[in-house]
Amino acid sequence: MTLAELKRGQQGIITDVSSIHIPLKLLEMGCLPGNTVELVQVAPFADPMYLNINGSHLAIRKETASHILIETAHE
Amino acid sequence: MSKQINVALIGNPNTGKTSVFNALTGLNQKVGNYPGITVEKKEGVCKLPRGVKAHIIDLPGTYSLNASSLDENVVIELLLNKKDKNHPDVAVVVSDVENLKRNLLLFTQIKDLKIPTILVINMSDRMAYKGITLDIACLEKELNTKIALISTRKNKGIQELKELITHYKELSTEPCLDASSIDSSYFDSLRKAFPNQLLYKLWLVITQDVNFGKTDRQTFEAVEDFKTKSTADLKRLQQKETIKRYQFINETLKKGQTIDLKTAKDLRIKLDRILTHKVWGYVIFGIILLTIFQAIYDWSSIPMDFIDGSFASLSEWIKNTLPPGAFTNLLAEGIISGLGGVVIFIPQIAFLFLFISILEESGYMSRVVFLMDRIMRRFGLSGKSVVPLISGTACAIPAIMATRNIESWKERLITILVTPFTTCAARLPVYLIIIALVIPEGRFLGFISYQALTLMLLYLIGFGAAVGSAWLLNKVMKFKSKSFFVVEMPNYKMPLFKNVALTVLEKTKAFVFGAGKIILAISIVLWFLASYGPGDKFNNAESIVTEKFASENLSKDELNQKIESHKLEHSFIGIAGHAIEPAISPLGYDWKIGIAIVSSFAAREVFVGTLATIYSVGSDEEETIKNRMAGEVNPILGGPLFNFASGISLLLFYAFAMQCMSTLAIVRKETNSWKWPVYQLVIMSTFAYIVALAAFQILK
After folding, report:
1. How many Å apart are CA B400 and CA B413, to the nearest integer?
2. Predicted pLDDT of residue B226
3. I want to staple B347 with a disulfide (CB 3.0 to 4.6 A). Which of A16, B57, B303, B663 is the partner?
4. Interstrand relation of A68-72 and B4-11 (parallel, antiparallel or unpaired)
5. Total number of domains in chain B
6. What pLDDT does B77 receive?
7. Cα(B390)–Cα(B403) distance, rounded to whole angstroms?
8. CA–CA distance, B427 with B658 (Å, rounded to integer)
9. Are residues B530 and B670 in the same domain?
10. Secondary structure (3-state) at B258
11. A27 and B CB contact within 8 Å
12. pLDDT at position B90
């Protein structure tokens, strides 16, 4: 599944990021394969998404999140 | 000359880098620009132990050495260019104890440049609160550096940091990891092609596309057979490099840092639940905005009235004290009234920057960006456009500079283009005086005054014009630009008084001196143009007027007044004003307003100053500008010149016209082209003319 499908309060682990669609800045902030990600809060219409990636708190748009693959713990 | 150490402060945004800078330099700091670009340059002097002095430069915040903006380029250029006079002898990397992992990425990159580097771990007062313990000795060994654990909030560790800077020569310049292993063969060929250059520096030159001084560029072009990689390949390698650096950092922190989540408390979650709530978040933001406007328009009126009165008495005092003559007139009528027009803005500008810096320091501004992004995107803007649009109510110049962190070029450009529509502080004096003249004093429903209501409507019109034109631009501009949006959500913090006070001081100073120069120059030029004229009609004014009114038996005062107004009409400025009168009389203005409008294309606030100068030239009595304006008669239609129709027309003209040279200059710099400022000037001013024309013709 992609990060865009994560529910509020849910956690996952990043498995792959599509490097063409993702700005380097986001990678540098810790959005890398193997790191955990949690959806802290969403704005109306679930966009943008307020995330906790590897201890870094940041917000990205849903469109960007759809290029980040994750797997959730219970799958 | 005593020896001076060059120190560069580098760090991620939101690490308290500026607090460290303020703690080291205090008031010994100055803010300027880097030559040729509008990136703010902050430098200061710090006294170190044993009489050593340090020259400290506070570099723009950056997450890494991979530059994506003009501000970040400055950091890399300074670190790579050894010939720059500010090239640091020692780099101080400021990090935040809660985000150490992310902050260390930049640190490892700087270490690779073999510059002596000190690691500052700031906000140590929050460690216990967050359940963090650090093994400093272990971290110093793993990272090959010296660490200063400090708290700018509690004023701890600053002395230790100063000691470390003094002994910078003892620092190791060895990198902490070998980044070249991400693609050994590529880096080997790079090493062979340029044996004398630092490998990591070459890598940055290849990936960054920034100017690193001529010698470097030439060496690169000299070796033609060295094949560089495609952009996509380079980006993949940069990603690999980032992963490798994080691996190293994770291992290091496993040894030197423990976090006990059980004792960690988190205020963030509780506050965010309310402040970013789907309903309450917007309600709270609305209340905060209302408070800011209330402060700017209500609370600041007390100091503003005081300033206004003081300048009027100063001008009067000069006229009475100094010997009469051209110089006294220039001083009292030109310079003092012009300067008063600038100084009067200080309270409002100071209030606005006070609020903006508190919102930013506390971390709340990022929440606003988060809340507003989706709404702003509908109009082709970004959540980050909110900050420029709010700052634009003070002044468009810092507002346009604040668009730099908008990642998408299209969203940034639209924000730059529409920001001048927001009602800046310079429009306020124009609005206030015209509203006082043409809007009746009564109250709507008994409690809201019509005048205040008009002012509020003008603000809404300004904001509406900004958002509406953004929507139009988004439809018209066809180019696609990748829309990235990454915003850090920092922890909530109590703003530090010292930081807020210094920001307010510095921004106010910049505005007053920046605008002050233009206004002073224009006031002087205007005064000359209004006091002198060509030909007999001006020079023989006295005899002409005396002859003309000889039969009417006028008193001496009345005659003098006729002479003065005849002079003004035939002065240089009067001739120019009459020349443009046909263009503006359909809007309900006379030539004097015309002059004020033309001169306020340099800066809007000049309008009132110009009318003050034009009306006070040759007048002996101390009379307020408002009374003089109320007495003016429309030359064509008769009746008062400033009536409801012409007043509304003027208000609308000022709401839409692009009348600020400094804004045009900043737009030129930020967009790197004359195209956009010229569009802005032509389109906004034409629109203003049409609206003002329609308003007058309908209302008259």
Report:
1. 10
2. 61
3. B303
4. unpaired
5. 3
6. 85
7. 12
8. 11
9. yes
10. strand
11. yes
12. 94
CA distances, B251 to each of B39, B100, B101, B146 (Å): 36, 13, 10, 19
Separation in Å, CA of A74 to nearest CA in chain B: 22
Question: Of chain A residues 41-70, which have a CB less than 8 A from chain B?
Answer: 41, 43-45, 47-48, 50, 54-61, 63-64
Alpha carbons B100 and B94: distance in angstroms, whole number: 10
Contact A37, A3 (CB under 8 A): yes
Considering B238, B264, B290, which residue would you say is the last residue of a domain? B264
- Average pLDDT of chain B? 84
Backbone dihedral angles phi then psi of residue B242, each to the nearest 5 degrees: -60, -45
Whole-structure pTM value: 0.79
**Among B242, B245, B227, B237, which residue's Cα sits nearest to residue B190?**
B227
> Smallest CA–CA separation between B424 and chain A, in Å?
30
- How far does CA B491 lie from the centroid of its chain? 25
- Is the preceding omega at residue B175 within 30 degrees of 0, hence cis? no
How many other CB atoms are found less than 10 A from the CB of residue B286?
A: 10
Residues B162 and B251 in one domain: yes
Distances (CA, A) of B217 to B186, B199, B223, B230: 19, 15, 11, 19
Q: Which residues are registered as beta bridge partners of B603?
A: B660
Cβ contact (<8 Å) for B374 and A43? yes
* SS3 state at B554: coil
Per the domain annotation, does B491 fall within a domain?
no
Q: Is B17 helix (H, G, I), strand (E, B) or coil?
A: helix
What range defines the domain where residue B670 resides? 517-699
B252 in the same domain as B125: yes
* B548 CB-contact burial (10 Å; exposed 0-12 / middle 13-18 / buried 19+): exposed
Cα B230 to Cα B64, B207, B659: the distances in Å are 21, 10, 46
Q: B1 falls in which pLDDT band (50, 70, 90)?
A: very low
Burial-class residue B581 by CB neighbours within 10 Å (0-12, 13-18, 19+): middle
| pLDDT, tens only, B662-688 | 788 888 878 888 899 999 999 999 999
